[in-house]
Amino acid sequence: MKNDIDNNSAIAAEPWRIREDALEPARAFLHETLFTLGNGWIGMRGTPDEGTTGGAGQTLEGTYLNGFHDTESIRYPENAYGLARVNEFMLNVPNAKRVAAVVDGERFALDTGRVLAWERTLDFRTGLLVRTVEWETSTGKRLRIASRRLVALSRKHVAAIEYAVTPLNFSGTVRIVADVDADVTNLQAGDDPRVGSALTGPSLVEVAREVGAQDVLLLQKTRHSGFTLATATASVPSAASAVRVEPVALGQAFEADVAQGATFTVHKYVAYASSRDMRDAAAGPHARAEVAAARDAGFVALAAEQAAYLARFWIDADVAIAGDDALQQGVRFNQFHLLQSVGRDGRTNIAAKGVTGEGYEGHYFWDTEIYVFPFFLYSRPEIARALLQYRYNGLPKARERARQMAHDKGALYPWRTIAGEECSAYFPAGTAQYHINADVAYSIRLYLLATSDFDFMAEQGAEIVLETARIWTGIGSYDRKGRFCINEVTGPDEYTALVNNNYYTNAMARMHMTFAADVAERLRSERPADYARVAHAIGLDDAEIRAWRAASAAMFLPYDDDLGIHEQDDSFLSKKVWDFANTPKENYPLLLHYHPLVIYRHQVCKQADVVLALLLLSKEFSLDDKRRDFEFYERVTTHDSSLSSCIFSIVASEIGDKQKAYAYFMETARLDLDNTHANTQYGVHTAAMAGTWLGVAYGFAGMRLDEAGLRFAPTLPAQWTGYRFKVQVRGALLDVAIDATGTDYRLLRGDQLNFAHAGTPVALDAQRAHIRMENQQ
Ligand code: BGC
C-alpha cells in the first residue's frame, strides 16, 4: 500500500445517503467502492464519469457483471490428485459510462486545471449517484459539470448517465465526448489472498465494433471461457439540431456553442448483454434493444423507475434506528449494497465483495447461505429462492466434484466458485470446508420454515438436500466407541485447518442428515410422484435414509467436561494458546504475517466457529452452555475475518451481555463505511453487511425461527431510543418496533401470524393486527 493512500472514508453521517463534499485523491480508491452502483448484475464503481487518474493502487476503474467471468488454469509446481484445476474470475469489462467535457482542447480530468467545488452523493432512496463539480481550465474558463448516474434496478442490462455542462464565466464551444473505454484489465493480485486475480493483459478480445451517429456496439469474447459480451451505448445530446457530431474511436463527440449560464446536456444509455444468458448471436441485438428501450424511456423515466423500485424495497426491508445517525447510515448503506450486489436470475449469486471490486475475484462462498440469505429471505423471499435455484443449477458440477473427491454418490459444493467449479487453490482452507454442503441445506431448511414453499422442495430443494447429505455418510465413519466421526475437514475458522470432528461441521452435518431424512419421508408421503422421480434420478433407497438417521443419532459432538465447553475439534484444546499479549497490533490480520502452519499450531480463531453453531442450532444448547462457550472462544478469537463480529454480537445479546453485543455490532455495522478492515477499496464485505441485519433481528430482537416456530426476545441497546424492522414470514409482513419499555407488533400484510414474545404466545390476524408487549429486562 502506498503511503499517500488514506484508508479512512470522509463521509458525513446522514441517514439516507453517503456524501463527500471535497475531492480527495488519496481517498479515491476507497470511495469508488463505497459509491458503487449496481443492480445485482451490473456493478459500476463510483469512479468519475471522465475516467480515473492516478496509478494502480490509487484508483480502480472497474465495471463488473455478476458471474461474467473468464477462466485460467491453476498451476501447482507441486501437484497432487484432485486439486482445483481451473480458476473462474470476474472480469473487468469495458467502461461504457465514460463521458467527458472538453473546452479549447482541454479535457476535464481531476488532475488538470483547478477543481473549485466538488460534491458526490449516493442516495439510497433515489438510487442515483450525483456528482457536481466546478472546474476552471488552465486558461481560466469556468464550468459546472453536473452528472447523474444510475444502474437500473428494474432493468438487468441497463445503466444511464446524464451529463450536463454549464459555462459559468464565458460563452463558447463546449465539447462532450461520450465513448467506451475498452482498454481495461483486472487488478493484479499481490501477496494478499483477498485481492485480485492472476490475469495480465486485456480482459477481452474484440470481435467487432459499429459506431454510428449516436450509437456504439462493441462485441468481444473472453479469452478462455468462450463467452461473448456485447456493450451498447446510445448518446443523445440536448438541442440536437444545433449540435455538431463527430465519431470517435468507440463513441461520439458532440459540440455546441453554449451561452454563459446555459446548459448543454448529453444523456448516455448503456447496456451490457452476455452469452452467459443467451445465445452468442443474440447478445448484440439484445444489448441494442435494451439501449433503445432505455433511450425511448428517457433518463427522467428511468430515474422515476429507480425511485419506485427502491420505495418498494424500503417498505419491506428498512431497519430504522432512532438515536444514532452514523449507525443508521451504516445499516442502510449495507442493506442498499446487498440489494445492489445480489444476483436474482438463478444463475448468479452474491459475491463476497458484491459487484464493487475484484477482491476474492467475484467468487461466491458460504457467506451467501449463512449470512446473506436470511436478509433476503425475510425481506424479498423471491430473491432468496433465486439464490437456492443457483445452487440447484450447480448440482451437476457439484456431482462431478464429488466423484473427483472419491465419493461414489452425492454432490459436493465448491468452497469458492462462480459457475460451479471448485476454484480454491489452497485446499486446507478451501475444499476442506465440507460444511458448505450443510450450510446450503441449512438455508433450504430455513427457507421452508419461513415460506412453507413445499413446491420448491419438490421441484429443486429436495434434490439438493438429499444429494448433498450423502457426502456425510461418504466421509464419516464410526469409531470404536460407535460414535460417528468426520475426519480431516476444516470448519468455519480458517485459523485451524484439517482437523477431526470440527464441532460446527459435525453438528451441522447432523442437522443436515436429519433434515434430509425428514424431507425424503415428507416428500414420499405428500408427493409420491415427485419422490419417485427424485429417488429414481439420484438412485436413493431406504437404507440410505436409515443410515442418515443412524449417523445423526451417533454423531460425535466433542465436549470438554473439565472446562464445560464444546471443543472446536479433537485437537483444539491441546494446542498452545496464541501469545496475544506479545503480538503487535500491526501483525493483524495474522494471515498476512505468519505462515499458516504457525497459526494452525495454536489455539487461535480467525472467526466464529463453535459460537456460530450456538446461533444456528440455538435450541441444541442451554443458556449456560452458550455463556461458557462464548467466554472461552472470545478469548482466542481475533475476528480477522469480517464474518466474525456480527455472530459474537448476536450471541452476546442472547447471553445478556449488552455491552459486548453493542460493541461487536458497531464493529460490523460501519465496517465498510469506516474501512475498519483496511481493504474496502477492493470491495465491500457483503457477509458483514448482512451480518448487520442479523445483529438487529437475531441479536437485539432475539428473533429465531425453527420447528418450534417464530419467536422474539427484544432488548434495546442503551445507546438507542428505539429501532424497527420488518419480516416476511409465510406470506405475512410483520412490523416489529422496539422502544425502551415494549415492542409493538403490527401485521401489515397477511391473514394471520403466530409467534412468541419473550416466551409468551402471540397471535395476530386481520381483526387484531396490532399488539404491544412489554420487554423483559
Ligand atoms: C473467511 C471465510 C469467508 C471468505 C469470503 C474469509 O476471510 O474466513 O469464512 O468465506 O473470507 O468472505
Automatic annotation (TrEMBL):
A family per Pfam: Glyco_hydro_65N
One GO molecular-function entry: hydrolase activity
UniProt-listed SUPFAM superfamilies: Galactose mutarotase-like, Six-hairpin glycosidases
Domain Glycoside hydrolase family 65 central catalytic: 332-693
Domain Glycoside hydrolase family 65 N-terminal: 20-276
Superkingdom: Bacteria
Keywords: Glycosyltransferase, Hydrolase, Transferase
Domain Glycoside hydrolase family 65 C-terminal: 703-764
Record-linked PANTHER family: GLYCOSYL HYDROLASE-RELATED, PROTEIN-GLUCOSYLGALACTOSYLHYDROXYLYSINE GLUCOSIDASE
Family: Belongs to the glycosyl hydrolase 65 family.
The name this protein goes by in its record: Glycoside hydrolase family 65 protein
